[in-house]
# Entry
Amino acid sequence: MSTTEPAPRLHGSRCDSCGNVAFPVADGCQRCGQQVMQPIELSEHGTVWGFTVQRFAPKSPPYVPPADGFAPFAVGYVELAEGVKVEAVLDCADFAELEGQAPVRLTAAAPVPRFEVVA
# Structure
């Protein structure tokens, strides 16, 4: 018997009135102000919209440095098919891979969204 963990998913909401998508789930529409939102699962693939590299350890707490010490990492925005941009940690072998709207896929939804470059 094999146990596999379900694929991570991000949940947002879509306005019944104007179709605007929000992440995270919202009670009201930020575009038209209506209060009728439907929960939706967001795409697990997207493209890097913009990013930066964190080259120094964040303030601790809440950051907990790994046992082998701090290593620079990328953070940025991923644009999903629904048109929403999600702030996330971006995993890659080389930061140059993130240039030019790199395709990425969701690898973790909690505690923060995390995407990796698709080869």
Residues 3 and 107 are 18 Å apart (CA to CA). The two ends are 31 Å apart (CA to CA). The beta strands are 11-15, 21-22, 37-41, 45-54, 73-80, 85-91, 103-108, 114-117. DSSP finds no helices and eight strands in the chain.
